[in-house]
Write a structure and sequence with these properties.
By secondary structure, this protein is mostly beta strands. It has 2 domains: about 200 residues, Beta Barrel (OB fold (Dihydrolipoamide Acetyltransferase, E2P)), CATH 2.40.50.140; about 55 residues, Ribosomal protein L2, domain 3, CATH 4.10.950. Helices cover about 0% and strands about 25% of the residues. Strand 13 and strand 14 form a beta hairpin.
Length: about 280
Amino acid sequence: MGIKKVKPTTPGRREITFDDFADVDKKRPEKALVIIKKKHSGRNAQGKITIRHRGGGVKRYLRVVDYKRDKFGVPAVVKAIEFDPNRGARLALLHYVDGDKRYIVAPVGLKAGDTILSSKELIEIKVGNTMPVKYIPAGIAVYNIELEPGQGGKIARGAGNSVSVMGVEGKYAQLKMPSGEIRLVKKDCLCTVGQASNPDRMHIVIGFAGRNRRLGIRPTVRGTAMNPKDHPHGGGEGNQSIGLKYPKTLWGKHALGVKTRKTHSSDRLIVKRRARNK
């Protein structure tokens, strides 16, 4: 992928950048591997907004992606690299020798015509191959890693993400996450060799508000710009400070300096926390 700039004909296009899609081989998705994406606009079953600032957006299909890679021992040929509007990384369309077709999250360097394999045994350490993490040498980058064997990949699936294998000891493998966190996973968990594709996505500049609306992101308004009935920060004449002991959320809770991470059963497997921003 490359980053494309345009002529600054308007203020919104002065700094805006686009994806050039140079690595995409196929425009239309595989019909058998798409489903309708319903719009919920951040609302729950009662129609109440549970996630703010969502709504609108262009129509799109959901691609059915194979995160489990459970066709063990069956070689697959990469038919095409495709763009997916629901994620930053590219998808690779696989044609298995038994006639099955599946999408996977494509790694950097995978091209149409390549042959890849998934196995529970040791196979070649090659970009796109999937195997248990216990067979990966220290220092090799992997992505789409399972938290539990057979669960399907959960870690490092976003564009440009990868995890570094630090070693295997006992029944666990030690991984260094993109955030700097070091955690343990069971050594039988599957992972895919390589780095998730499209690492340049982080450099794309949205540029103007309308582009976010097409992505389904609605405007976020500052609390100080609201009325007192709408937000604890609201009210006042002209430019006013918050005027409170501490910044609050819309619901009156602390907005800064409070831990928000939920506890998980796998927290006991975290060896070192990520570095916090200062």
